[in-house]
Specification:
Strand content: 5-15%
Number of strands: 5
Shape: globular
Radius of gyration: 21 Å
Distance between the termini: 31 Å
Order of helices and strands: HHHHHHHEEEHEHEHHH
Structural class: alpha/beta
Strand order of the largest sheet: 3-2-1-4-5
C-alpha cells in the first residue's frame, strides 16, 4: 500500500495558541471561558490535541487537583465566538466547519419516499447487525470552487468495510451507477439493502433493486443519526480528505491507498480485527459453498 503522510488536526490547522492579554474584554458568547484565561488556554490546548468539546468538558471534571465544570455547549460557543473565530479554533474540530450548523437538525430534504422504503419498515435484524450485506450510503462534498465532483461513501454495517466511488456531479443516475459498479461484483448475500438520507442524489434508488436486488431504506427527515455507521465512517475519511481537497485532481492511486488504509485499520467493535479481514471471511465462505 502506498505510504500516506501523517495527518492530524494540529498539522492541518494554522491556528495560533491563545495568549490573552490581562484585562482583555470578550463577548458574552462562551462567557465562562472568555472570563477565565487559564481555562481558555487549557481548552485551546486540548482542541489542538484533537479532543472534542465533549471530551474536554468530561476530562476537566475529572481533574483531581482543580476540577472544573463547564458544559461542552459553552466550549462550542467559545470556539464559534469572536475570539475563537479569530484563532481559527473551528479547524481543530472533527468536522472542521467554519460556521456552526443549527443544533440537532439538518435542513429538510425534498425527496418523497414511499412508505415501504422508510426506515421504520427496515427489518430488525438490519438494525441489530445480525446479517452481512446491509449498507449505508452518503455523499461527501468538497468546496464549490473545485467544481461539482464528489464521492459516494458506502459502509457495510456489520464489517464496517468502506467503499468510496467518484461522481462528476450530484445527479442521481450517476451516483447509482457508481454504487452498482462497486457493489455489483459482490455475492448477493453481501448486497441486500442500503440506507440513505433523503437527498435528491439518491432519488434513482429503484435502479438498485432492479439491477442489484438491493432494497433501499431512508432515514426520517432531519435524522442523519439513523445512518450512524456511514456518518462515523465519514469522520474517519475526513482525516485524509478534508473539505479543501480538490477531489477531481486526486489521483486514483491516492484514493485507493486511503481506502486500503481505512479498511486495514483494526477496529475495537470488530475485536480489533480489520474490516478487510471480516468481510474477506464472508467472501471466502461464499466461494467455499
Amino acid at each position: 500500500m502506498k505510504e500516506l503522510p501523517h495527518q492530524s488536526c494540529r498539522t492541518r490547522s494554522r491556528a495560533p495558541c491563545w495568549r490573552a492579554p490581562a484585562g482583555a474584554g470578550f463577548p458574552a458568547c462562551g462567557g465562562k471561558v472568555n472570563r477565565d484565561r487559564e481555562l481558555a488556554a487549557r481548552i485551546v490546548e486540548h482542541l489542538q490535541q484533537c479532543w472534542t468539546p465533549e471530551q474536554i468538558a468530561g476530562r476537566l471534571r475529572l481533574d483531581e487537583a482543580n476540577p472544573i465544570t463547564v458544559c461542552h455547549e459553552t466550549i462550542y460557543q467559545f470556539v464559534y465566538g469572536t475570539k475563537g473565530r479569530q484563532l481559527g479554533l473551528w479547524s481543530h474540530l472533527p468536522r472542521q466547519r467554519k460556521t456552526r450548523r443549527q443544533r440537532y437538525a439538518r435542513k429538510p430534504r425534498g425527496l418523497n419516499i414511499p412508505l415501504a422504503n422508510t426506515i421504520a419498515e427496515r427489518p430488525k435484524e438490519i438494525a441489530e447487525r445480525k446479517q452481512f450485506g446491509h449498507w449505508e450510503g452518503d455523499l461527501i462534498a468538497f468546496r464549490k470552487e473545485f467544481g461539482k465532483s464528489n464521492l459516494t461513501s458506502l459502509v457495510e454495517r456489520r464489517s464496517r468495510y468502506i467503499v468510496l466511488t467518484r461522481n462528476p456531479s450530484r445527479h442521481s443516475i450517476g451516483v447509482m451507477a457508481g454504487i452498482e459498479h462497486h457493489l455489483g461484483p459482490l455475492p448477493q448475500t453481501l448486497r441486500q439493502s442500503i440506507t440513505f438520507d433523503r437527498g435528491t442524489e439518491f432519488a434513482a434508488f429503484a435502479t438498485l433493486k432492479t439491477k442489484l436486488g438491493m432494497t433501499s431504506y431512508f432515514c426520517k427527515p432531519s435524522a442523519p443519526w439513523q445512518k450512524g455507521s456511514v456518518e462515523n465512517s465519514n469522520g474517519r475519511i475526513r482525516r485524509f480528505l478534508s473539505l479543501d481537497t480538490d477531489i477531481a485532481a486526486l489521483p486514483d492511486s491516492d484514493l485507493a491507498a486511503i481506502i486500503q488504509r481505512l479498511n486495514n485499520t483494526p477496529r475495537k467493535c470488530l475485536g480489533f480485527r480489520t474490516p478487510t479481514e471480516v468481510i474477506g471471511e464472508q467472501i471466502a465462505a461464499h466461494i467455499a459453498t
